[in-house]
Task: inverse folding
């Protein structure tokens, strides 16, 4: 039972179209579930690979993921934290997204903590953010 993604030219939205069988799945048979339009263009869908928790944890233990952390580079810390989020399948909340953006801009963890004292119940500076 395939699900394909399309762009609907009628309502200008990206939509997913479910087909009951592979034989029915075609661009001609696709109908927009939002507006019932038939002017759809099939898109390339994102591919997700199911992995065990053990496999994800092994990926996180890869020393190459921690490159740059030893120099306390805020950009490296942000990169590491984003990769951890992606690897664990846990999206960042808006507050952590702001922290990551500021780290990527080169702002120090201490400056971020000073301007966001309620972040995670009051973190303890570089030591807490740097692990």
Result:
């Amino acid at each position: 039972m395939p699900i394909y993604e399309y762009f609907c030219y009628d309502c200008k939205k990206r939509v997913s179209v479910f087909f009951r069988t592979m034989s029915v799945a075609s661009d001609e048979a696709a109908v927009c579930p939002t507006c019932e339009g038939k002017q759809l263009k099939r898109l390339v869908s994102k591919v997700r690979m199911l992995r065990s928790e053990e496999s994800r944890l092994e990926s996180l233990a890869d020393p190459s993921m921690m490159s740059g952390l030893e120099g306390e580079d805020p950009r490296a810390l942000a990169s590491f934290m984003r990769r951890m989020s992606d690897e664990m399948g846990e999206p960042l909340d808006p507050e952590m997204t702001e922290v990551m953006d500021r780290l990527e801009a080169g702002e120090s963890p201490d400056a971020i903590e000073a301007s966001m004292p309620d972040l995670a119940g009051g973190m303890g500076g570089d030591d807490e953010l740097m692990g």
